[in-house]
Amino acid sequence: MTFEQYVPLAMRTANPDTPLISAHNYILGLFGEGGELTDVVKKVIYHGHSLDQALKSDPDTTLREKIKIEGGDSFWYIAVCAHQVGGVKAVSDYLKDDTCFDIDPEMSCIAYVRNLSEFAACVQHLPGVSSGFLAAMAVCVEQILKWAGVPLEEALSYNIEKLRKRYPLKFSSEDSLNRVV
Fold first, then answer.
1. Residue 59 CB-density burial (10 A; 0-12 exposed, 13-18 middle, 19+ buried)
2. What is the mean pLDDT of the chain?
3. pLDDT score recorded for residue 72
4. Measured between alpha carbons, how far is 98 from 116 in angstroms, rounded to an integer?
5. Does residue 67 carry a pLDDT above 90?
6. SS3 of 98, please?
7. Are the CB atoms for 142 and 177 separated by under 8 Å?
8. Pairwise CA distance, residues 123 & 89, whole Å
9. d(CA 102, CA 85)
10. Exposed (0-12), middle (13-18) or buried (19+): which is 88, by Cβ within 10 Å?
11. Are 102 and 144 a contacting pair, CB within 8 Å?
12. Which of 15, 131, 170, 171 is a plausible cystine mate for 90, CB 3.0–4.6 Å?
């Protein structure tokens, strides 16, 4: 599944709030999911955890799987934001660009946070400019997935399947409150 194929599937579960409220919702989501993703990287790099180590809270899930889950969740917010600011092509082009250099997971985390801060600062006033920051965040998440040995397509597909179970028809507050997965 490519990013361009992923976006319409992700949009099926977007909360249909007004654009201003949605933008704030999605920015907070990007910070939250990015925090969860970068926390796993931190545990592996600095705390001596293994990517194949099981989570204490869920022994059936490894840190590698957690990266796949959080990477997919991060991409959901990137996709919805890119759709909202007209930046789907920019993000997709960045992800297809084979000349993007490989950066280590630590630098990917730092770059993700930096680009997210820039995106949050300009999205309300310069939506066209903000798509470049989203594209850079997408590449950072993709680099973290690569480092963990998780193909981007796998993370995107997993995310869509999870959301199909959670929101069988479309987003609803009721389904959000009564999560199945």
1. exposed
2. 87
3. 97
4. 23
5. yes
6. coil
7. no
8. 17
9. 27
10. buried
11. no
12. 131
Structure-token match 């654009």, residue found: 19
Take residue 169 and report the two structure tokens written for it.
């028809």
* pTM of the shown model: 0.90
What's the residue count for the chain?
181
- 74: Cβ contacts below 8 Å, ≥ 6 apart: 30, 33, 34, 37, 137, 141
Q: Output the six-digit token pair for 36.
A: 């969860």
Q: Which residues pair with 54 in a beta bridge?
A: 62
Q: How far apart are CA 173 and CA 176, in angstroms?
A: 5
Confidence of residue 71 (pLDDT cuts 50, 70, 90): very high
Instruction: Let me know: does 139 contact 132? Beta carbons within 8 Å.
Output: no
Q: Which helix (H) or strand (E) holds 171?
A: none
